[in-house]
Specification:
single chain, 196 residues, alpha+beta, Outer membrane lipoprotein wza fold like, 2 domains, five-stranded mixed beta sheet, three-stranded antiparallel beta sheet, 28% strand
């Protein structure tokens, strides 16, 4: 009887370890899975968008996403855009226009995207706010900051990112990123890289 209990306990423990093994315990896995695939573009303040409503030139045209995250569109006035994908924003405009144009066919495109704004804090040669007209990776951002200052700890660079779920932090080892052992994530506007 005692042997049977031990066998059952060992079987349950083995099953539990197997289940836990399938769950990612590395926070960097989230960054790694996003590396290499293009995420859906999210509209930022500072973007210029082109809204085309088929057969309605007076409603169509370019709009600028203001600091409050909104754009002004004829007929429907203020529309929130910041943080939405192009598809989500297109659906929003189409829905809002239905009151005035029941069969509105809307196409939205990005004419010019706002620069990616990121911050380097701590022991960098050039800490502070930086901007990139195009996409920028973790390693490119460090290079833009002139590399590490003397006595910096490149083994612990913290990427701080705001998300809808709250603030997220990822600790990256610069040398492991160089060696390809850790991801070289693309930065998002507002990201902070901090090193001691």
């Amino acid at each position: 009887m005692r042997v049977m209990r031990v066998l059952v306990a060992v079987s349950l423990l083995t099953l539990l370890i197997g289940c836990i093994g399938g769950v990612s315990s590395r926070p960097l896995d989230e960054l790694e899975s996003a590396t290499g695939k293009a995420p859906d573009y999210r509209i930022r303040s500072g973007d210029t968008l082109n809204i085309q409503v088929w057969g309605e030139p007076e409603v169509s045209g370019e709009v600028f996403v203001r600091d409050d995250g909104k754009v002004s569109v004829k007929l429907i006035k203020e529309v929130h855009a910041q943080g939405l994908t192009i598809d989500e924003f297109t659906r929003q405009i189409t829905e809002d226009l239905k009151r005035f144009i029941p069969a509105a066919s809307v196409v939205v495109s990005v004419v010019q995207s706002a620069p990616v704004k990121y911050f380097l804090l701590g022991a960098f040669q050039r800490p502070g706010e930086h901007r990139s007209e195009g996409s920028v990776t973790f390693l490119q951002a460090i290079a833009t900051g002139g590399g590490f200052a003397p006595f910096a700890n490149p083994g612990r660079v913290t990427l701080i990112r705001k998300s809808p779920e709250g603030e997220k932090r990822y600790v990256l080892d610069y040398n492991d990123v160089i060696a390809g052992k850790e991801p070289n994530p693309q930065l998002q506007s507002g990201d902070v890289l901090a090193v001691e």
